[in-house]
């Protein structure tokens, strides 16, 4: 059975973390923009910033977790 390389695992972790973080950030950003009554086009900016920030942080942590688990053999 061939094992994935460490780089492939970390890359997959970052990609999955970014996708999940982006989805959660979009939902939370929309909720927050409506709740705090952000005016006009600033809603789009607020939702975008929340989405990208959440995707970056979650992707970073999932990538770091994948890197930590990379050396372990089960």
Overview of this protein structure:
This protein is mainly α. The protein has one domain (15-72). The chain has helices at residues 6-35, 42-70.
Strand and helix layout:
Elements: H1 6-35, H2 42-70
Helix pairs in contact: 1-2
Pfam family, one: Romo1
Subcellular location: Membrane
Organism: Ananas comosus
Which stretches of 5+ consecutive residues score pLDDT under 50?
Answer: none
Number of domains: 1
In helices, the fraction of residues equals over 70%
Order of helices and strands: HH
Summary, kept brief:
The chain has 74 residues and is mainly α. It has helices at residues 6-35, 42-70.
Features:
2 helices; mainly alpha; 74 residues; transmembrane; membrane; single chain
């Amino acid at each position: 059975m061939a094992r994935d390389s460490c780089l492939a695992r970390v890359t997959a972790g970052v990609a999955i973390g970014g996708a999940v973080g982006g989805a959660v950030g979009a939902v939370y950003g929309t909720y927050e923009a409506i709740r705090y009554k952000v005016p006009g086009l600033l809603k789009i900016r607020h939702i975008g910033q929340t989405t990208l920030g959440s995707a970056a942080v979650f992707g970073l942590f999932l990538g770091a977790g994948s890197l930590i688990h990379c050396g372990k053999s089960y």
